[in-house]
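ok so heres the complex, two chains, lmk if somethin looks off
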Amino acid sequence: MKAAILTLGTELTRGELVDQNGAWLADELTSLGLDVLAQLTVDDDRERIKRALGGLAPEVDVVVATGGLGPTSDDLTAESVASLLGEPLIRHHDVIDRIQQLWRSRGREMPPSNAKQADLPESAQILPNPVGTAPGFRVTIEGADAFFMPGVPREMRRIFTDSVAPALAPRVSRRSHQIHLRTFGRSESDLADALTGVEEAYPGVTLGYRAHFPEIELKVLARAGDELASERLAAEAAAELHRRLGDTIFGDRDDTFPGVVGRELRDRGLTLALAESCTGGLVGAKLTSVPGSSDFLLLDAVVYANSAKEKVLGVRQETLRGHGAVSAETAAQMAEGARRLTDADLAVSITGVAGPGGGTDEKPVGTVYFGVARAGARTHTFLRNLPGDRGRIRELAAYVAMEAIRRAARGERLPGAPKA
Amino acid sequence: MKAAILTLGTELTRGELVDQNGAWLADELTSLGLDVLAQLTVDDDRERIKRALGGLAPEVDVVVATGGLGPTSDDLTAESVASLLGEPLIRHHDVIDRIQQLWRSRGREMPPSNAKQADLPESAQILPNPVGTAPGFRVTIEGADAFFMPGVPREMRRIFTDSVAPALAPRVSRRSHQIHLRTFGRSESDLADALTGVEEAYPGVTLGYRAHFPEIELKVLARAGDELASERLAAEAAAELHRRLGDTIFGDRDDTFPGVVGRELRDRGLTLALAESCTGGLVGAKLTSVPGSSDFLLLDAVVYANSAKEKVLGVRQETLRGHGAVSAETAAQMAEGARRLTDADLAVSITGVAGPGGGTDEKPVGTVYFGVARAGARTHTFLRNLPGDRGRIRELAAYVAMEAIRRAARGERLPGAPKA
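and the predicted structre for the whole thing:
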């Protein structure tokens, strides 16, 4: 079943707003099993809206449109559709009643301009909007099933999920299944090398790669005879990916790396202290973005100044003078200091040169030392030379630190440590 | 002059990638003075690419297209254009030479598949790509000037800036001018109220609002007779906005709030220490995202655990027991402790309930206390009840803290302090 997406609004054609609805709808329609052939954005102009709809509708089975259903004079979707269909606009009184109720529930009277949102083409079937004033509607244009929704993403998504998807799903024979796996620690070409031959071993499977720096998402798309067979095939191929990549795969689509790292600590009842220099609090900010982080994170000491490294964490002045703030020795003492202060089971430190200034021949921008101090074990340090600009170096360093926390929590070998 | 944007790629129509090029190009073309009438995205299908171009070109003066210029079999842009124009594809040998050079400079030979990127329509004029292998090209389609560029954003932007914008600019009579102002601290409706009457007082000026939580960007669009008059009108209206809004406006389009706050400290040679609880390092991470933050930030103590509040910052156990970790008293002692540890000129603390758990009747989710300790002044605390979910509460709290740092650095009245 073929589909096209139409997004309406001068704020979009002028680039004042980046359209998120189009990509979201494309993803949803593709997941439902439709082939999205085109996405078109046009400005708020009656003739161009009509021409866009008239051009798309004969090419596809389904048109999904967003935007232009508001109360103002430049919201022209309903009247453009009515004009295209040669129908009058009709005031839908049940819609008015609902909008009035909504305003009253907020303790106010409906502004007269809102009545415009109830003026819809005569043949329109209403798509209720439980979270806003403008309802969506559905009409048939040149044989295509056309759905119109407001442009507010929250309202659009709700109407799509409540009314559009259920109308389309029974008419599509879904023959594919997708599994998303999230990875950190290998480059795209490394992953591709490690996965050589998977597509040949599992006919019907296509692998996709999508970078969200510094993560890479793997997509396993399986197409077998029917939905059930596709699901089974995708699961088999995903199991093979797990075998080949091990814990480079840290979770599925809904997991986040900080969430997974936090879970490793919480599940084991372990506590954590952090000592950050060049990452400036980024590791702490990431770990605490997940609720429940107060269960394990005792302290994140962001010690930018050498004086703070000394006073707060007890890094020795001789160490700072002799080896510098960016050194394995300082990283070790930062981690040990953070652990001593808090009695945490585990302490991890980061000190490096994020740039753009501060690099030297010996320690260029991107030089980052990590320290890991644990109860009952020798403090471990390792060095990474990270590529990119300040933002990427900091982001990567935060991920390397979280990866070290994950490995330490599980009792696995740390980077740079001798193999057991 | 009318323009249309065409973005090509099945990864876009399937929603696997959110197209950023379209909005970027729309913004650039609008700034150049063109009217963008439509943006169209189609999948990698020869007939649909031809039909899209054939449909758009007669409607506009300029078509700008991205994508489908790569070396693989599903990159179909050049051959679709040639077919639409009824021209053969010609191998451009100067392009091949450049691609080969690029590969050699990386110490490798050009893969044979790359030669495809030099196969362009006979009438094509090359648009050089200094940062990648695929060049852009320019042809005339039904009277419209059509520019084709690769989809890699970095390459597309470079080619647009180097070749497309200079070709278009002399042909447009720019009659408008835009100024962007960034604000924090007032809601959109507050801003609108404060700016009532500005559009009437400055005919030709339109004000726009664009929310990037928790900031709101104001856009002053001025249309006068010519470019110079528009620029002058925009500047006059912007001055009026500055008069009305004061330091709610923190900068222009290229400023960031952390950058502005850091500048206030650096310009005055002031040092800063932070003590964060519920924001988990977010304030430090934001301030240190800007280079040069090591000049002023001495310490950010993220003290999640009460034991860390006591041991690291010297918050008294009686205070934590009697008033709780989320209290004005704890906030004050956190700020004082951070200042004592570092001798910083200024120390700011944040302690609150970010949720989703941890709220009580007395201190519901969103309750956040701030402390400000300064050399030679009494420690000041204030309370904010912040709306939203965990992410929004943390983000807002970080902004409130940065705003307090800005005011303290400038010696201005702090929130909740008595008016002088």
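quick notes: Chain B has a mean pLDDT of 91. thats all i got rn
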